[in-house]
Amino acid sequence: MPQKTLEVENLNVSYFIKNRFVDAVKDLNFNLFAGEILGILGESGAGKSTVGWALMRMIDPPHRVSGRIVNRDQDVMSMSERELGEYRWRRAAMIFQTAMNSLDPVSTVGRSFRRLLLDKQIVKSGSEAQTMVGELLDMVGLTPLVADMYPFELSGGMKQRVLIAMALAARPDVLIADEPTTALDTLTQFSILNTMLDLRKSDRIGSMIFISHDLSVQAFMADRVMVMLKGRMVELGSKDDVFGKPAHPYTQFLMQSLRFSFDDTRKATGGGKQGGSGCPFAQFCAHAMERCYQEFPRTTPLSATHSVACHLYGE
């Protein structure tokens, strides 16, 4: 059995919006194993990005986060600020959605990169930082000359590669990539995805959580896929399980929707709206029973690699 990089137990996240709490993630349980890429798949509003933010413990009051997130036998939820500083970047790093616009516009890539390496105490000297910047840029397919360039001189794909290099600087146990190729053209997108797969073979990434609504991207990247709908995990399995033998009616619908746009899928499932204690797909499901509207089903194992949360299975 591979070593567990992360253990997530009963993760719940609620955002405080307009004087009330709105559930964004409910009762989420999963493990991330060493060396694997776990894809989190779902439409906009499913809670995918919220999971990433919660794993980094970046959701602050008045919003609510509960559950256990265990890395190296330590619960991230119980960490002090000092311990969190060690956990972020060194043990878990995240490439945020649209983060390529976050590079300092008045600083060269190299200067920003060196500042990060020194601030996080990844290196001890400026010369050591200079060497590492060149090595990391080369690792993500960029010439070391990029270090002397400003963000406005870089294409979108080049900016994203810079951010990937920064995220890998401390050799994190977990890299969380949140829609890392959004807004890039198809050729650039798959070039970056191939780079990320190549990096997986190096010692720079322990495991990866890859967040994307794009089914084709998940099929290309993931070893296992977790399907989310309106804050709930409805299916989890190997890529072959989820794409080849989808069990949950929602996952089956997603596979059929490959012929349509994802916007059409969102309209058919009510978008990302949350609420209710039953299955979030019940009102659209041809197999729905009365209990589907009243209680969310337990997760039922279908095989050693495949599980589903659906009343059609199990009892």
Automatic annotation (TrEMBL):
<protein>
    <recommendedName>
        <fullName>ABC transporter domain-containing protein</fullName>
    </recommendedName>
</protein>
<dbReference type="GO" id="GO:0005524">
    <property type="term" value="F:ATP binding"/>
</dbReference>
<dbReference type="Pfam" id="PF00005">
    <property type="entry name" value="ABC_tran"/>
</dbReference>
<keyword id="KW-0547">Nucleotide-binding</keyword>
<dbReference type="InterPro" id="IPR003439">
    <property type="entry name" value="ABC_transporter-like_ATP-bd"/>
</dbReference>
<dbReference type="InterPro" id="IPR013563">
    <property type="entry name" value="Oligopep_ABC_C"/>
</dbReference>
<dbReference type="InterPro" id="IPR027417">
    <property type="entry name" value="P-loop_NTPase"/>
</dbReference>
<dbReference type="Pfam" id="PF08352">
    <property type="entry name" value="oligo_HPY"/>
</dbReference>
<dbReference type="InterPro" id="IPR003593">
    <property type="entry name" value="AAA+_ATPase"/>
</dbReference>
<feature type="domain" description="ABC transporter">
    <location>
        <begin position="6"/>
        <end position="255"/>
    </location>
</feature>
<keyword id="KW-0813">Transport</keyword>
<dbReference type="InterPro" id="IPR017871">
    <property type="entry name" value="ABC_transporter-like_CS"/>
</dbReference>
<dbReference type="GO" id="GO:0015833">
    <property type="term" value="P:peptide transport"/>
</dbReference>
<keyword id="KW-0067">ATP-binding</keyword>
<dbReference type="GO" id="GO:0016887">
    <property type="term" value="F:ATP hydrolysis activity"/>
</dbReference>
